[in-house]
Design brief:
By secondary structure, the protein is an alpha+beta fold. The protein is built from 6 helices and 4 strands, in the order H-E-E-E-H-H-H-H-H-E. The protein has a 4-stranded antiparallel beta sheet with strand order 1-2-3-4, with no helix packed on it.
Length: 154
């Protein structure tokens, strides 16, 4: 740091365990903390709050303990194409909202492995969202109501 400061104007803080270093910094909205057993990363919470607001999940309603749910029965994969033929496509307004929610869920999943699977499943349906596909995002929002913050140890 001293060598850098001799040639450049250094702003910001240095993350580390020493007395002259800070234990926690924010970088691109993410919080990085120095712990005795490694680093702890926490994603930008504003995206979780925005998803909750966009999907009206900030008020009442039931919170859930998992971000996704198991598909009912083993026949689901076999008949998925048949279901697409009978399901109706979302209207343009709902499809735009769905795609925005799926994209935000993908961004959140970069920092939260607990929602990675549901983000992937929501992304698979982005091209042609069908009526009822939004239950994936609604359930994830209900999960975020219960667990708005998660951190990852590295």
């Amino acid at each position: 740091i001293k060598e850098l400061e001799s040639k450049f104007e250094v702003t910001g803080e240095v993350l580390g365990p020493d007395d002259d270093e800070t234990r926690q910094v924010k970088y691109l909205g993410r919080t990085i903390s120095w712990k005795h057993d490694g680093l702890e990363l926490e994603g930008d919470r504003k995206h979780v709050h925005k998803l909750l607001k966009d999907w009206d999940a900030t008020g009442g309603g039931r919170e859930v303990g998992t971000p996704g749910m198991k598909e009912e029965g083993h026949e689901h994969a076999r008949h998925e194409e048949d279901e697409k033929k009978t399901k109706m496509a979302m209207n343009d307004v709902d499809a735009k909202k769905y795609r925005g929610g799926a994209a935000r869920l993908n961004y959140i999943a970069l920092d939260r492995p607990d929602v990675a699977f549901v983000a992937k499943e929501a992304s698979r349906k982005m091209a042609t969202p069908m009526v009822g596909d939004d239950v994936l995002i609604i359930r994830a929002a209900r999960y975020f109501r219960r667990f708005p913050r998660r951190s990852v140890q590295v």
